[in-house]
Each structure stands twice: as C-alpha cells, then as structure tokens.
Write a structure and sequence with these properties.
The chain is mainly alpha-helical. The protein contains 8 helices and no strands. It holds the Pfam family NrsF.
Length: 211
C-alpha cells in the first residue's frame, strides 16, 4: 500500500469513527430522555402559561441558554470520549459563557436592583435542585453505557462530560415546567442542580470507563 493510500485510509477510518460515536451519543441521549419525558409527564408537566411565556424574552433566553449548554456538553462528551481528546469542544463553552454573561448583564440593567434577590431565589429553587438530577438519570445511564466502548483518554473527564450532557438534556426538559425565567435564577440554580449529576458521572466513569 502506498503512503498516500495509507493516509487516506486512516483519515476515512477516523471520520467513520467520529460519525459513529456522535450518532451513538445522540442515540443514548434520545433513548434516555424517553424515561425522563415519562417522569416529566407524570410528575411535573408543562407550565400552564407556556404559550404566553414564549412571548417573553426571559423565557426565550432560558431556552436558548439550555440548548446552547446541551450542544456545548455534547461536543465535550464526544471529544473526551476518544483516546486522543481534541480541544475544539472548548469553543462551545466559550460561547455558552458569553451568552450567560450577556443575559445576566441585560437582566441587571432592566430589572430594578431591589428585585434582584427575589429573582435570584425565585419560587422553584428546591424543585429545580431535585428535578434536574432525577430527569438526568436516564440520559446519564445511556451515555455511560455507550462510552464503555469508546476508550476515553480520561475516564473521569469523560464521565463528567456525560454527566454535564445528561444534566443539560434534563434542564431543557425542566425549563418547560419552571416558572422562574430570570437569568439570575437560571444561571444560579440550574448549574447547581447539574453539579451532582456531573460528580456522579465522574465517579461512575472512573470505574466503568477504564480501559
């Protein structure tokens, strides 16, 4: 085999592997989210003013934020699942950070200073801290099972990334139930709710994803 053919073969194999892993991760999130959706329908349900909420910038920003977090976490999960992890996933984190800071700045400019504390605490903080971890369990299980076949460079980081992705998927679902739309609330309680899922993913990943 000539050198050019060998290089082309290696590139093609890498492309097929990347596509296969991306599809497997997407499938794991989708299948795991079926369980999350069942829990959501039975225990939570969508907020009653959902149609009106779509007309507000805070609710729309919340959806954009959690969807951006989902994409950033998916990129990190796919990258860190490989034996040689690329750093391209960090761009998604930067975009998410810029979006978060921008939304927070707009909220602080528009909302009276006296309402900041109320908006931050909200009315669903306790529910948020419980619901997102529970809704994340299905996607997390699916992701960890998929990543067992991927030989990640760092099982702990790959597990943590799968936890972040599972939490982001849960946050997208929970956003349709949560009545607290202020960026002050979302940027405080949603990340706090994701922490135990990320830690669980890291701990289980350390044991389950080792070569």
């Amino acid at each position: 085999m000539k050198t050019e053919q060998l290089v082309e073969s290696l590139v093609a194999d890498r492309a097929r592997s990347a596509t296969s892993l991306s599809r497997s991760v997407a499938r794991a999130v989708a299948l795991g989210s079926v369980l999350s959706l069942g829990i959501f329908v039975l225990e939570l349900g969508p907020r009653v003013d959902l149609a009106a909420a779509f007309a507000t910038w805070r609710f729309d920003f919340k959806l954009v934020l959690v969807l951006t977090a989902l994409l950033a976490a998916a990129s990190a999960c796919i990258a860190l699942a490989r034996p040689l992890a690329s750093r391209s996933w960090r761009r998604g984190v930067v975009v998410l950070a810029v979006l978060a800071v921008s939304g927070l700045a707009i909220e602080l400019m528009l909302a009276p200073a006296g309402s900041w504390g109320t908006r931050l605490v909200g009315s669903n903080a306790r529910d948020c801290l419980k619901a997102i971890p529970v809704l994340a369990l299905g996607p997390l299980l699916g992701l960890l099972l998929v990543l067992r076949r991927s030989a990640p460079a760092s099982p702990i980081l790959a597990g943590a990334a799968s936890g972040a992705l599972a939490a982001a998927a849960a946050a997208v679902l929970y956003a349709f139930h949560c009545f607290d739309d202020s960026p002050l609330f979302v940027l405080t309680w949603y990340p706090l709710a994701a922490v135990p899922v990320i830690l669980l993913g890291a701990v289980v990943g350390h044991r389950l994803l080792r070569w």
